């Protein structure tokens, strides 16, 4: 009996197809809201039905017309981005803010890492911080404050990524439809206006790095010697920066090595065609090691094993039976109570097997599916690492709930379609398993995607933002002409039967939407005015001493009525608090909770003043966020008679009680 030869790429594609199926189901049904699910399905059905008409229209466009349309879309997107940065500054919190504050300190020559224990516990972000400080030094010379300096970097990198993706898709597919559809998604979805624009963190450089890598690989064979030299240098720098900023980019190196080994035995001619960019990528990872060490040395960073966490803690955290594989603060607190890195490692050596045994084989597989569904879900991406808008304009807040809900739906529709297209193309590869040869570019793309999925599903903790590395990888797979579906090669309008089926499905979904008991949007998570940026007491953030009977105050503008107010304090700090309406001069006394002062009542639109007073005859510490030139809130903090424009309380005015 003759055994048929099977392409290894098709086997890998089948595994990726299974992951895409999990991503499709997750984005349709999570978060659980029947109205949102109905809108996602209606959007997907509408795009499916109209796809032939869209393909027919785009096929008739000239290249000049397509260029103009793409240029207009990109310019319009950039204008909206600048308006968002000007009128909708977000309150950045957690890791990105800690990195930002330290980078700002370094950029002003303050080579001190002792304001927080964060970098001793998690040194993986040291290189990113040092690189950010170098950029801020440059923007300081241009007299830009930290806010505009760091957001200029986000603006440049984000739009570089988007343009690189559009270029890759257009170059590969040789079709107007794919590039225009991708551009429209970036224009109308929250992708270009929320997390990646408002929060600078390691995810965006990783996306840019992958976009550069695959752009070079796609076009390498067509480049002349001069262009190969320039793009090779860019490729090397991208890999070095990408690896020092986000060490899990090592997944790409593993994929390159596996493809190289496979081609070494199966097709050396194909390997010869791409060996130069492969060698550059490998060299980039090698040079990343001394680069990272050099950045740490230049910034005077010194690791302290007393506070450092072993890498295994991420694996242990991901198998917490009471969590879904995400970051868990209780696990962090448990390890923090153990002194010394080796003692923590000894604890984990026993604790991890215990967790795996408690979950059991079925529980472990279930956890993998849970983690994959979180990784590939995008509904919460727009709000990642943001505590809300600092003080959104009145007009925007009037429609904020509706805009946020529709943005979430558009993101889910976009990724459901991306995953579905990838799924179909992977199945096409599988169906041709005995006939097709292994294209190294496709193999590398699939291997890299699977590597990231496996890393965050089988080993590491997971978050939806980690799954965004799929965008350049899946975009390439959906643009490769040899994997194109029949519907793309031969435009056929939907039949009457297909039309009736789609119509009936839409009617059922509309009826379900109308009868669904829960609202599409909720006021929870949509705040009126916030300032949540802080270095966090869990990392031993420095508190501010206030002298006996000293007073602190800060003005806040409410552009929408609020129902709840909270201001954070250091635990056990004995301060009295008052919220004063500057128009009516009405005073509201705040009541004490363990870590904050709070008020629950309806607060109309207007200007308010938060006022705290140290009522004791001794100095007390209070939680205040301080930066050098990053404006945290529209109004300065006052301590007695002194004003501090870059200091702020940590407060929240909420829509919901």
From TrEMBL:
Protein name: Glycosyltransferase RgtA/B/C/D-like domain-containing protein
Taxonomy of the source species: Bacteria, Bacillati, Bacillota, Bacilli, Lactobacillales
Biological processes per GO annotation: lipopolysaccharide biosynthetic process
Membrane topology label: Multi-pass membrane protein
Transmembrane segments: 7-28, 34-54, 66-88, 146-166, 178-198, 204-223, 235-265, 277-295, 374-391, 403-420, 441-460, 466-487, 499-516
GO annotations of cellular component type: plasma membrane
Assigned keywords, A-Z: Cell membrane, Glycosyltransferase, Membrane, Transferase, Transmembrane, Transmembrane helix
InterPro entries noted in UniProt: LipidA_mod_glycosyltrf_83
GO MF assignments: pentosyltransferase activity
Compartment annotation: Cell membrane
PANTHER family attached to this UniProt entry: MANNOSYLTRANSFERASE YKCB-RELATED (PTHR33908), MEMBRANE PROTEIN (PTHR33908:SF11)
């Amino acid at each position: 009996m003759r055994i048929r030869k099977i392409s290894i790429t098709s086997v890998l594609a089948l595994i990726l197809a299974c992951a895409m199926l999990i991503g499709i189901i997750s984005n349709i049904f999570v978060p659980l809201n029947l109205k949102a699910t109905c809108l996602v399905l209606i959007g997907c059905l509408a795009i499916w039905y109209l796809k032939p008409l869209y393909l027919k229209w785009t096929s008739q466009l000239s290249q000049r017309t397509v260029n103009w349309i793409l240029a207009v879309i990109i310019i319009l997107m950039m204008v909206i981005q600048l308006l968002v940065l000007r009128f909708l500054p977000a309150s950045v919190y957690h890791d990105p803010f800690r990195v930002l504050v330290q980078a700002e300190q370094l950029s002003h020559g303050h080579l001190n890492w002792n304001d927080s224990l964060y970098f001793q516990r998690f040194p993986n972000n040291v290189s990113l911080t040092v690189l950010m400080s170098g950029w801020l030094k440059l923007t300081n010379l241009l007299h830009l404050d930290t806010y505009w300096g760091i957001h200029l970097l986000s603006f440049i990198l984000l739009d570089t990524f988007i343009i690189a993706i559009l270029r890759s898709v257009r170059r590969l597919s040789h079709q107007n439809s794919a590039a225009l559809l991708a551009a429209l998604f970036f224009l109308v979805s929250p992708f270009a206006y929320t997390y990646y624009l408002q929060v600078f963190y390691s995810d965006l450089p990783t996306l840019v790095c992958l976009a550069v890598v695959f752009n070079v690989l796609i076009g390498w064979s067509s480049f002349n010697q001069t262009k190969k030299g320039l793009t090779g240098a860019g490729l090397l720098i991208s890999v070095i920066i990408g690896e020092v900023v986000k060490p899990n980019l090592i997944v790409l190196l593993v994929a390159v090595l596996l493809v190289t080994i496979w081609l070494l035995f199966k097709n050396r001619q194909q390997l010869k065609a791409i060996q130069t960019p492969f060698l550059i990528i490998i060299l980039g990872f090698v040079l990343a090691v001394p680069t990272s060490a050099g950045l740490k040395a230049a910034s005077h960073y010194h690791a302290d094993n007393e506070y450092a966490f072993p890498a295994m803690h991420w694996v242990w955290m991901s198998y917490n039976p009471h969590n879904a594989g995400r970051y868990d603060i209780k696990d962090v607190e448990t390890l923090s109570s153990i002194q010394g890195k080796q003692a923590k490692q000894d604890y984990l050596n026993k604790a991890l097997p215990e967790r795996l045994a408690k979950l059991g084989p079925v529980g472990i597989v279930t956890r993998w599916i849970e983690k994959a569904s979180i990784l590939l879900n995008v509904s919460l991406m727009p709000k990642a690492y943001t505590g809300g808008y600092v003080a959104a304009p009145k007009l925007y807040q009037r429609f904020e709930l509706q805009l946020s809900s529709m943005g979430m739906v558009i993101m889910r529709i976009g990724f459901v379609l991306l995953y579905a297209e990838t799924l179909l193309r992977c199945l096409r590869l599988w169906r041709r398993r005995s006939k097709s040869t292994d294209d190294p570019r496709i193999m590398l793309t699939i291997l890299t995607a699977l590597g990231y999925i496996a890393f965050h599903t089988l080993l590491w903790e997971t978050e939806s933002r980690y799954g965004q590395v799929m965008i350049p990888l899946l975009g390439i797979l959906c643009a490769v002409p040899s994997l194109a579906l029949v519907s793309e090669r031969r435009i056929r309008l939907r039949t009457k039967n297909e039309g009736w089926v789609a119509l009936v499905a839409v009617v059922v979904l509309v009826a379900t939407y109308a009868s669904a008991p829960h609202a599409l949007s909720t006021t929870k998570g949509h705040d009126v005015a916030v300032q949540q940026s802080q270095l966090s007491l869990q990392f031993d953030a420095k508190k501010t001493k206030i002298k006996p009977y000293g007073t602190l105050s800060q003005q806040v503008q409410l552009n929408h009525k609020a129902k709840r107010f909270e201001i954070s304090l250091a635990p056990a700090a004995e301060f009295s608090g008052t919220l004063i309406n500057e128009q009516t001069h009405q005073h509201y006394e705040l009541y004490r909770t363990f870590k904050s002062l709070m008020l629950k009542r309806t607060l109309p639109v207007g200007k308010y003043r938060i006022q705290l007073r140290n009522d004791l005859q001794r100095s007390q510490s209070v939680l205040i966020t301080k930066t050098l030139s990053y404006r945290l809130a529209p109004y300065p903090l006052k301590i007695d008679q002194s004003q501090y424009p870059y200091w702020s309380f940590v407060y929240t005015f909420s829509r919901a009680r």
